[in-house]
Amino acid sequence: MKRILMSILLAGLFAAVSAGQTVQVKVRAALYDRDLNLKPVPHLVVKLAPTTAGIQPLTIKTSLDGLAEASDTRISSPGSALFNSSGNAVGITQFSSDKFRIAPIAIASATLVEARQKLTSSAPPPLRLLPTIPADEFPSDKLRAPGRGHWEKEVYSFKAGDFYVELVTPIAQYEADTENYEVEMKDYNKHSKNRTAPSEPEYKYEVALRIAAIPQTKMPFWENMANSSLSNGRAPTVIRYKTGFAKMRLLCGEKEVDPIWPGRVKEGAQDRGWNVVLADESSGGRYLYAHDAISPKCGKVTLQLFSTKNADHPVEKILDAQQVERIWQDFEPYRQLQTQHEVVAPQQ
To answer: Hey, what's the torsion of the CAs at 323, 327, 329, 333, to 10 degrees?
Structure first.
């Protein structure tokens, strides 16, 4: 009998189950024998642990061909580590743009080595409490902001250098989710044959401010001219990213605000339509900040974006008073709820 090397490859995901997007989970379990022949692993039980209270763990079992899947699974966007059967981390998973991406652990290893070198050559950071996301969700009955006749998208989005920037509060996310759902339902009502009706969003949001920096694209003139000539005008339009995202800084007055999560994600990855091809990849920013990170008390709120093309000279955008006031007011229902809890607590 051939000796089996117990190194199980789970080609799929080990992402944390949470109250996020709904996807279909597919897992393939296989192992190599001593001759490096890949063999399926039947009846393997895979358990995905929840990160949110009240969410049941997802357990799936592989069939005789080593495959398993589960539909309508809710996951969190950040993803998690990918482990082998020995418990060693071999990759990092991330759910982005409706796709799962698995990056080799070597990417994280290089970052850790760089961090260790910085710790030995520079002074440690000061001891202070870092911001966190509150355990409470944003009150769902306050998602529709009072007194607003329509959603003012322009308040929450703008251009800065080669980036599109979005300021995402729970109310802004609610408005975007509602608008997208209404568009999907309108399309479904027109063409419902052999289609599944769109699922209504759950409208559960974390109490945090998310700032997204998305690199802009361009259409290379000569590349598209050449493609059009070779294909007699039938080639799709090629677009490429202008730059990539390196990091961002948020300043309240002259003081930098600590992020809860300084996220950096991949953008693009060969996305294409019938007439447009996004031909390369880039990086974008998804930073999470505390709900009170910026306020009218700051006086001036500045956002600095550092690109991969010019990492030493940021593009600066000073938020106008209307944007700062709107973001502050979006979180007012949560602050009022916390004040009510503080008043009730001493009486108990």
So the answer is: 170
